[in-house]
């Protein structure tokens, strides 16, 4: 241990006085002694002071030697503790500052794009470039790119760049991405969801290039030992209406009226609280003075606050009495009615008792059988529910024809009231509202508007509804429409042509159905997709679906996976062949996923051997017929497609086809919990249990024993707006 002297000087080893290396007698190796400077020279005053101090010391009682030593040691121990405390405090403060700075700038180990080993990668835009990412290639994509294809293998890694602000917008166009043999593709991670905008566009026509074995064309493929991790920004996938929305956004609908040669003053009275049209009247004040008096009395007895809209048809001035004009001026606030003349076009919107500040009006003079434009009056109001609406009145002469009319409609967006907290939905997102009618085609899409006045259970949509959508529980039956958000910040999209070009498809579809697809093969390393949008995916051919787990076996702990394979929060919409296909795969979790406007069975278990798969809180709606299987087809497809039809047999649509379903479950040992089948051409949920495996699994001669297998969990599922109903069949 090192000691310091009373002055705090640094310790030093003692040397012999002659400066030689010879050690004096009594020397202890390693002993440290304080280094002291030579004594200062003493002048006379100093000498006197020293003598006085020594004399004073001789007068004090002398302390025992041991007591003096103990006191010195106690003082030294106390000083040591104080120094240690100060040093420790300084160390902790410095460490805290360092860690604070370090944490601010240190990479997050949960975020794949912050891996310090990654190299920024910009392949450019060359549609002929074939990319191979292999051992030692650890790439971060930070800019747009177009290439022919990408193969990631032998430990190669491709990561989409991101930042904390979510400011990046990266688009990758390619014909296909193949991930195999240790290759990895990451966009975000389970513990670090992607914040920016990432788009993968799969392009190409069906007659271009050769097929990749087992995968085909226009795909993201995951082969053995491949890893695909896509994790977008988390948001609530779907919820229910908590209040009915009406046709046009108004409880009584919008109102439109237009007529020629409706002579006199055409009047509409509107309820200011509901936008309901209360009175539809016409007063011929051109021909009859009695009509003028009737109008005067009507206004005087009208309820204050009622909205009044007036439009001149043809002419209204000849017998419009002065006292009636004064009444209109005083009660409604018109400035122009006192001077209204022959065939002058006048339009007015105001409030009874509201005065001039609550009205809007316009006049146009009649010249040469025309008014040179339209007299248009309009004013905005709010219902008691907070819905903005506009009342319009117009009047004009056009080529000798008098025209007048009215319009009442919601403006500035329509507010939807929802059951759950939807604060994760953003302005610009696209949403879908399910039909609550018998027809699934009353399902509607909307665009969200900014809505600072909305609560966390409300959104405002840009478009006015074309159909009513129930948001209530009626007579104990939950009739509330499902509402799902379609937009995600990770988008995988198939690029399509403007028109149909595949002859075999064009007889049934007038648009291109050759989209992209994602296919996962057996023995993959890791596949997890969350909050990803899939658009224009799938192809009208066997094996090419938006998401397809192909003969993967057990994909949960039973198959040796530490983390259960799952699809969560996907938005699969406007696609061309199913939604999610589970083929020869067990233990998959499909959760909070939307399948909207798709062809053929949507959530589909294929061969009848798929077990232990869980469909939890998924929404499927507008499931349309497709061509792949007889059960996918409508009547015209059923009769028109002759492939694999025996001999001259003519299929009977009602029994051989017409079974397209939102959920097609082919083995009882699967779980359906909290799902909604909200609109299919035929059935919402169809259980079809095979005694022997079908499809690719048929050659394995596996007995499914479905008739002896207990049904998995079936709980709290909703089915509506389907041509048929939930269906159950053992085949």
Automatic annotation (TrEMBL):
Transmembrane segments: 79-102
Pfam families, A to Z: CEMIP_beta-hel, G8, ILEI
Domain G8: start-end pairs: 119-243
Annotated catalysed reactions: Random hydrolysis of (1->4)-linkages between N-acetyl-beta-D-glucosamine and D-glucuronate residues in hyaluronate
GO molecular function: carbohydrate binding; hyalurononglucosaminidase activity
Region of interest (Disordered), ranges: 1-56
Keyword Glycosyltransferase: no
GO cellular component: plasma membrane
Superkingdom of source: Eukaryota
Predominant place of localization: membrane
Polar residues composition-biased segments: 15-24
Subcellular location: Cell membrane
Enzyme class: hydrolase
Keyword field: Cell membrane, Glycoprotein, Lectin, Membrane, Repeat, Transmembrane, Transmembrane helix
Residue ranges of coiled coil: none
E.C. no: 3.2.1.35
Name this protein carries in UniProt: hyaluronoglucosaminidase
Organism: Eubucco bourcierii (red-headed barbet)
